[in-house]
Write a structure and sequence with these properties.
The structure holds two protein chains of two kinds.
Chain A (H helix, E strand, L loop, with lengths): L7 E6 L2 E6 L4 H5 L2 E2 L5 E2 L2 E2 L5 H8 L5 E7 L3 E9 L15 E9 L8 H9 L9 E6 L6 H4 L3 H12 L5 E2 L5 H4 L5 E6 L5 H11 L5
Parallel strand pairs in A: 3-7, 8-9
Antiparallel strand pairs in A: 1-2, 2-6, 4-5, 6-7, 7-8, 9-11, 10-11
Chain B lengths: L4 E4 L5 E6 L5 H10 L2 H5 L8 H8 L5 E8 L2 E10 L8 E8 L8 H15 L4 E7 L4 H9 L3 E11 L5 E10 L8
Parallel strand pairs in B: 5-6
Antiparallel strand pairs in B: 1-2, 2-3, 3-4, 4-5, 6-8, 7-8
Classes of the chains: A alpha+beta, B alpha+beta.
Chain lengths: 211, 182
């Protein structure tokens, strides 16, 4: 598997300096500590509770694991841009056109410091991004509403505001899991080099059909 | 909210959902002209009255409308009636009309979902929709699927053109305010 060039930005916060780095490799991740806030809380469970899960994800082709690292040792935020699992609807657009923002999370005490924005920025510097349809699925039952003191609607709006500056927009879909709750959200970003034909296929795929 | 919204219906028909505008006055009149007299009978407003249509396209009386457009024609009209003041200001009332050839294709559900999102954005706490039992059963089923619950049944409350009485089902949906609602 070829490796991509890592990109990095620095962020100065009231809690200290951070670096946000793309394409983190398994061996990089292994050297870092995983914030204990990435765990199970009363009404919320982190998408990745173990560092090893991020290591495994980083091994997959074209996947970008983006980490927000404090003190050069400590993971306080992460994002994963990866191909969807083969059994998912979004894997049906060939050849591997769609890439999912599989996870984006910031440790509770580091939130409201624009770290998530930096993580998305680093995910979007993927060299293939303009050839892909990047997408993001927000299931309200995975959101830390308690930790953020937000309603589901406020959280939904926050996610939309977070992704829109990077070219994502909300799309309708009849995907059953997304349709389970009106608060759920499906957003996508169509790369500049995605053909009209593929864009049309994407429209039909959103409704589980072929043109 | 971002419009227009592209949809592909169950029968592969492509439609677009967008807000109703003043330029739609004639198209909306044409739309209600295609709705059967029986369906019109059960509406709360006389949709053949141009003043009613004009009020809606102008967004008067805190009524927000969206339409589904297919090949340049209106295929469905959905309204959210709100109250700026008073004991109903936390509630919105919904009404969705779909042309017969677009029914049973989930278009009504998409319109309903869009109005739910709009209601959430407006900070409403509850939605209300009234249905005539035995006449609007498909709509009742769609409402149940989107977490509307039966609030009350007013027995023998509605009269049809033949003089037969029907039950009126009042359904409501609470809009989630926090995690405690899940």
């Amino acid at each position: 598997m070829g490796r991509y060039v890592q990109n990095e930005i620095f962020l100065s916060t009231t809690l200290g300096e951070l670096r946000i780095r793309s394409f983190c490799q398994p061996e990089d991740i292994r050297k870092l500590g995983f914030d204990r806030q990435f765990g199970t809380h009363a009404h919320y469970r982190s998408l990745y509770t173990k560092r090893e899960s991020l290591e495994r994800k980083a091994e997959q082709p074209d996947t970008s694991v983006v980490l927000a690292i404090a003190d050069s040792t400590h993971i306080v935020g992460f994002g994963v841009l990866a191909y969807p699992d083969p059994e998912e609807r979004w894997a049906g657009l060939h050849p591997q056109v769609m890439m999912e923002v599989n996870a984006i999370e910031v440790s509770r005490q580091w939130r409201s410091r624009k770290i998530a924005k930096g993580i998305i920025q680093m995910m979007m510097v993927h060299p293939l991004i303009e050839e892909k349809i990047g997408y993001f699925v927000g299931y309200s039952w995975t959101w830390d509403l308690d930790g953020n003191r937000m309603s589901a609607q406020q959280y939904r709006q926050m996610m939309a505001n977070l992704f829109e500056p990077f070219g994502f927009q909300e799309y309708q879909t009849n995907e059953p899991n997304i349709c389970l709750r009106p608060e759920n959200i499906f957003m996508a970003r169509i790369g500049e080099r995605v053909s009209k034909d593929v864009q049309n296929q994407f429209k039909w795929l959103r409704f589980g059909m072929t043109p | 909210m971002r419009y227009p919204k592209e949809l592909v219906l169950k029968n592969c028909t492509e439609v677009v959902i967008r807000p109703l505008t003043e330029q739609d006055e004639q198209a909306l009149r044409d739309f209600y002209g295609q709705v059967s007299e029986e369906d019109r009978w059960f509406m709360r407003f006389n949709v053949m009255d141009p003043a009613v249509i004009r009020g809606w396209v102008q967004g008067k009386d805190d009524v927000y409308s969206i339409v589904a457009e297919c090949s340049g024609q209106i295929a469905a009209h959905a309204r959210l009636h709100t109250h700026a003041y008073g004991c109903y200001h936390h509630q919105g009332r919904l009404r969705i009309i779909v042309l017969p050839e677009f029914r049973q294709k989930r278009l009504g559900s998409w319109m309903l979902l869009d109005l739910i999102h709009l209601s959430m954005e407006k900070g409403l706490r509850e939605l209300r929709a009234d249905f005539v039992v035995g006449i609007e059963d498909a709509a009742i089923e769609a409402a149940y699927k989107l977490d509307f619950f039966k609030k009350a049944v007013l027995e023998d409350f509605i009269i049809d053109p033949l003089g037969q009485l029907h039950d009126l089902l009042i359904m409501t949906k609470r809009l989630h305010k926090d995690w405690g609602d899940f």
